[in-house]
Amino acid sequence: MTASQPPEHRPGSEPGRHNLDPHLDRYAARTAGMTASEIRALFAVASRPEVVSLAGGMPNLAALPLDSLSGQMAELIAEEGLVALQYGSAHGVPTLREQICEIMAMEGITGHPDDIVVTVGSQMGLDMVTRLFCDPGDVVLAEGPSYVGALGSFAAYQAQVVHVEMDDNGLVPDTLRAALATAEREGKRVKFLYTIPNFHNPAGVTLAVERRAEILEICAEHDVLVVEDNPYGLLGFDGQTYPALRSMDPDNVVYLGSFSKTFASGLRVGWVLAPHAVREKLVLAAESATLCPPTLNQLVVSRYLATHDWKGQIKTFQENYRERRDAMLSALEQHMPPGCTWTQPDGGFYVWVTVPEGVDTKAMLPRAVTARVAYASGTGFYADGFGSRQMRLSYCYPTPERIREGVRRLAGVLESEMELARTFGSVTTRAVSGPQFPGPDTV
Ligand SMILES: Cc1ncc(COP(=O)(O)O)c(C=O)c1O
Q1: Å from CA of 5 to ligand 1 middle
Q2: CATH node for 85-307
Q3: Domain named Aminotransferase class I/classII large: which ranges (predicted)?
Q4: Pocket mutation for ligand 1, best pick of 254, 260, 397 (most atoms within 8 Å of C-beta)
Q5: Which residues of the chain fall short of a pLDDT of 50?
Q6: Dihedral of the CA atoms 191, 195, 201, 204 (nearest 10)?
Q7: What is the CATH number of domain 31-63+312-424?
């Protein structure tokens, strides 16, 4: 066999079977939940410059002061290189953990630096928390829709996700009660409620303050832990913040934080604030995952917090994203066909759109990409195949002009899709349940 032979012609290989993975029967059972996104190839096309991507959730880093950051990084290596380039503790750099406490105080949290574990992004926190608490078959309650990366972690540990309904004010307490009652009736063990209370990804809504205590009470009554994921909490467009669930019930809430949206996602620095009793297990889980989070990146964040006007930078991000949100909402108002509805985010990155009966957003996506606009179809944000009439639009990355143009193109595609549905009936794909890897957030 020569290297140039196509795989079909290799001796012993069956024609057409060269795509089969020879390691298939070696994988652990838990990998069954790990499926590659069927739309990955499409996203390769969607990232071409002529396509307006409203699909990804990439922060708009152009607003960062790159010049002063680069000077600061050079100083860091010159002054603290032997520490910055060395292993550190699994717990994270102590000064950074103290600074993180100050940040969380802005949302009413009084945490102790000892109870913080620095992670490689809050995605690692999600993975660790699921690893610590979930056996296969355990139930995790999560808003419907929910963050695709969290659904991926739950699937990887074979947890069963039960979605809990949201409305414009976030998670609905009565549906939480009902989901818990059903799980108890069915003899299922609910391990935790996973919730994104502020500027939800993908729904764009915020949990009403008056619901927060009630949700915590319900979870405490049923002996269910709360995992609060809050990467967008400081990105309210009017500078508004909301009391963290963690601030109201420190013993029953694991809090996940991140510098990805308020500073730099590529540094991959996040954290978990655990109830004191959980902290030790969390450190051990972190140690087995990475030995320690990258010291250099932690020191970059720590220096940035100590020497930059980071609150001013967050204000700049808020203004930037507010301008883009405004562009998206006014374009939706102007162009979307009748029968479409969408949420009105007052912070964060996303608008959640519901389209009329008969339109399937997953089936429509290739046509949208052909019309040079991309979005994230709704099914990826549910673990149960729901979401075919929904889509997530991100306004964080494109310029306001591109957003307006993207929505205009999307509305045109929707119009023709609705026309097709009226003429021939609905166009559906088979229900593809999320979560899919990679999440659309990196596109
Ligand atoms: C709700 C939510 N949680 C967690 C993450 C992961 O963030 P990180 O970059 O800190 O891993 C994201 C990223 O988009 C997110 O939207």
Answers
A1: 43
A2: 3.40.640.10
A3: 78-410
A4: 260
A5: 1-17, 429-440, 442-443
A6: 150
A7: 3.90.1150.10
